[in-house]
Design a protein that fits this description.
By secondary structure, the chain is of the alpha+beta class. The chain is 39% helix and 38% strand.
């Protein structure tokens, strides 16, 4: 009898370095995200006097869409990915008898 193992699940992490190419486009998307989820926007600091910064707009987009979706469509939001990396965080193997 031999025991074979094969990967059944892998968890990866991703890091993206973004540059703002179009601050107006980014803030417009930030305002849209704030209107679509006002409760989440308030938790992230959006409130009176209702000024939108680039960092707040990015935080709202990441909260709404997820980091990988924002990085994957960076040019749609006025951003540019300058560097990215992926790493394996953990891997599980299933054992089966053959």
């Amino acid at each position: 009898m031999t025991v074979a193992s094969s990967p059944t699940s892998v968890t990866t992490t991703g890091t993206w370095h973004l540059t703002v190419d179009d601050p107006i486009l980014l803030t417009l998307h930030g305002w849209r995200a704030a209107r679509s989820a006002p409760g989440a926007a308030e938790l992230l600091g959006y409130g009176p006097p209702y000024r939108m910064s680039e960092s707040l707009a990015l935080a709202l987009l990441i909260d709404e869409l997820g980091a990988s979706a924002v990085a994957g469509n960076a040019c749609d939001y006025g951003l540019r990915v300058t560097c990215s990396s992926r790493g394996v965080k953990s891997a599980r193997r299933a054992r089966r008898r053959t």
